[in-house]
Amino acid sequence: MRSSHTPVRTRARFDDPNLVSHAGLVPLVRLMENIGLPALAGELVRLGGSAGANAAAKITTIVAGMAAGADSISDLDLLREGGMDRVFTGVRAPSTIGGFLRWFTPGHVAQLQTLLAEVLVRLTGQTSLLPGLDQLAFLDLDSKITQVHGRQKQGAAYGYTRVLGLNFLAGTLATELAAPVLTGTRLRGGNADTRRKAASFARAQLRTARASGAVNNLLVRMDSGFYVGELISEIARSGTWFSVTVPQRKPIRAAIAAIDESAWTTITYARPVRDEDTGELVTTAQIAETSYTAFTNPTLNPGQKTTGRLIARRTPIPTLDGQGQLITVHRYHAFLTNSPFDPLTADAQHRGRAGTIEHVFADLQSGPVAHFPSGDFQANAAWLSLAALTHNLMRALACLAGGAEARARTTTLRRRLITVAARISRSARRLTLHLPRGWTHEHPWQRVFTGTHHTHPPPRPA
Fold first, then answer.
1. What distance in Å separates the CA atoms of residue 461 and residue 125, rounded to the nearest whole number?
2. 401: domain range?
């Protein structure tokens, strides 16, 4: 590949008012309008004051900018480039958005969480966002630390990762057929304990999952940070299945040691899996199960006693004993569950948690949550909530595109569906977007455009 012109005969000018660099925002904004997001935002998010006026326009501006790749407030200016004003109205300037975000309080962030939940309910009702949701669904809960720079950021602190950051909780909802979407987020200080307020957060995510259509079999998957009596007992009492990694404490080690050697079943993975403790790839392991009652201390866990199936997985570690003889010891990983699935299936489902919520974290950190853009804590909490909303809208676009895009990562979706240039023309009161001829992803893009512009959306939920 080489240049087709000599340097002296090549010029570049930024002077075309009819070009847009992110034509994929046209169907995205139309999707927001089809599900009634602007009206819903105006109804649910009420900040008051001049900075909080026209919340719907400011929220849709932020979401559109995030979908286009903005990870800072100043990046939102890309919505005012070229011919964007010919396809969109009501775009707000970055300075206006900054004042809007800094106006948020914890109560207003909670309003955004309500908006996020309601939009998810509408998306699942009007698109094929989560096929199989009424059969078997997975609600994953986890925490994540995002590194930040500058001690001026409110809430930034050093946590267990030993980096300066902000901590946030997140819940994702997925099925065996669909990529995960976010049910909710909660921003916290960088040194926050995962267990703090985990039960209240889980309750909110369960409500959203049920309202979205997970009305039958729902499995809540968590790591050891969520091994909390209040949380696990409450999930069990609600009739929901849980699967939680258990820390290797003395009672757990004793229960595993009591398992008869003949009860261990050897399995060989078709594809190597990553050991959660060491990160090493494992091809074979052994699995066994026993009954176990957790949270039995009446002082520390009053009324929270929970009995379930303790499923343990062990992997061999060849090592040398004191005389230099090669012996085999085992590394154990165990989780507690009340699901009815056989041990091999339950183990595969529990391990699947890392392949869902971790991918969502990666999508967020390669996009709008690459770094929290404001020095104000509540502004960053609002930014995180809107990043979750953007993620779900991108997943809905992926479902409309179909094919390989249906489960593609958001960075891929942005490149294939959003970041494509177009020239605008108008004739007989009809607006036409002229996209590049031979665009590799023309057919998925056209399916998204048709699905948002030439179909009548079903009635919105009351």
1. 8
2. 14-102+385-453
Q: How long is the chain?
A: 462
Indicate the residue among 305, 326, 341 that finishes a domain. Answer: 341
Question: Does residue 333 sit within a domain?
Answer: yes
Do 337 and 412 lie in one domain? The reply is: no
Spatial neighbors of 94 by CB under 8 A, at least 6 apart, are 73, 74, 75, 76, 77
Q: Over the stretch 86-127, which tens digit does the pLDDT of each residue have?
A: 999 999 999 999 999 999 999 999 999 999 999 999 999 989
| CA pseudo-torsion sign 143, 210, 111, 76 | positive
Whole-prediction pTM = 0.92
One domain for residues 334 and 396:
no
- Verify that 246 and 320 share a domain, yes or no: yes
Among residues 318, 341, 364, the one where a domain terminates is 341
Nearest CA to 309 out of 333, 332, 289, 294 is that of: 289
Q: 377-401 and 357-365 helices cross at what angle (nearest 10)?
A: 110
Pairing of strands 19-20, 326-337: unpaired
Angle between helix 377-401 and 94-102 (nearest 10): 120
**Alpha-carbon 342 to chain mean position:** 28
pLDDT in tens, 139-195: 999 999 999 987 788 998 988 888 899 999 999 999 999 999 999 999 998 888 888
In a domain, 188, yes or no: no
Mapped onto helix, strand or coil, the DSSP state of residue 256 is helix
Structural domain includes residue 77: yes
Task: Tell me the C-alpha distance between 18 and 429, whole Å.
Answer: 16
Residue 408 one-letter amino acid = A
Q: Which of 426, 362, 376, 427 is nearest to 109 (CA)?
A: 376
Q: Are residues 335 and 390 in the same domain?
A: no
Q: How many domains does the chain have?
A: 2
- Can you point out the beta strands (E) in 6-110? 19-20
Q: Is residue 392 part of a domain?
A: yes
